[in-house]
Fold:
Amino acid sequence: MSTIQVAGVEVSTAHYIGGRRVESSETLELFSPIDQRPLGRIAEASPEHVEAAMQAALAAYPAWSALTAAERKPYLDRFAAEIGKRAEAFCQLESNDAGVLLSRMRHGVVPRAMLNISWFAARALELQDHPIDTEQAHHIVRHDPAGVCVIITPWNAPLMLSTWKLGPALAAGNTCILKPPEWAPLTCSLLADAAHAAGLPPGVFNVVQGSGAQAGAKLVADPRIARVSFTGSVPTAKRIAQAAGANLVPCSLELGGKSPFIVLDDADLDAAASTGALMYRNAGQVCLAGTRFLVHARVADDFIAAMRGYVEKLHIGDPREEATEVGPIIHPRQVERVQAFVERAVAGGAKLLWGGARHPFGAQYFQPTMLTNLKQDDEIVQNEVFGPVLTLQTFASDDEAVALANGTDYGLGGVCYGETVHATALAQRVRTGFIWVNSFGIRDLAAPFGGIKRSGIGREGGDWSFEFFCDIKDVVVPKKPFRASFSHR
Structure:
């Protein structure tokens, strides 16, 4: 079996299909965003690999779906435990492969990945047949497994988002094919080792590596799949929806964000500013971050001064160091995209409050940047940058704040700082999938997650995940003997 060594961790470069590693003659080269050093080559899927994974998942489905939730739970609990046993390996791999902060991996991502599996395994036990009693009949509402699920995850959070989708999909009784991000696939490969060690039956969980154009496109166009769950960009989502739609395959799409960060004139400015600086974490490569700062004109100068103070204290550097708060951008292509956004904005009249160029630490590092003097229809206000670049606009009234907040085609998340009653009332007027009041990043697996408009279709989390990954069936049992009657003319 082909493997590579990354930060002392040995990880397979092969696909994981039907419970075994499968090599490929075609490969993709990986580079670390930290210092552009080559990490090795991973297998790239051919159409034959995709077909093998489909056959394996289809073959495993009857036995896995026939198990009860209680019978599947021990497998998934062991899966979560095996992730825990490899905790530091996951941390090292994703930090080196994707540039994610090592501290974030240790204290947030890996514990959450374990919980994603075990929590949904436990929650599935509560999806008992739900009775609805009417005058005419007993209705037994069932959550039945849907079939083979294709899961496609992005490069900014491959481990967390893979387990976020795998947990409910597997707990519901589906079999899964995971297509990792081509720029950062290594933690998904290690995830296959954890599943194998946990004893998941062959074919229940498969990993097919490669490009979206080759592996991903063939998977989502297959008429034998039952569900597609995708997190990523809007253009890719459109292609996926078109391919899956040809076969009427349901899709859950969690896409980009251009979320407002609203600061009212009665806000705690220091609290808002310190939270605002958090938007630069993971080099701004976080879909749910508030990237459009909308600040009441009366407090704008004071807020800018307070946030500048926090931004100047941010430690930018190697994500493997515990003190680092802002690491690298994932790929040279993405760095160029971020820089081009800023250059076009400045050329169009935008003013730099801070940042605006590459950071001297390394080729894939970009300075935390804030732009102002912007119009609502400016490109950088309307489109997702996905880098450490924020914009700031001012408003004079609540109505104007709401109009600006709702004035893009996106609607994923949001943040609103102000006196609690005031901020809560305004937050409820913002058109978005979720919004935090005087806080940021509070999440619970029982709560729904997803966006509106171009930010996505559907919700995952809690029972919403099972609504997606299950076929809902109503078994109707009449209370009285039923005889069909026909009227004849």
User: Anything to note?
Assistant: The chain has two domains: 3-255+455-475, 259-437. The first helix runs from residue 47 to 66. Residues 3-255+455-475 form a domain with the Aldehyde Dehydrogenase; Chain A, domain 1 fold (CATH 3.40.605.10).
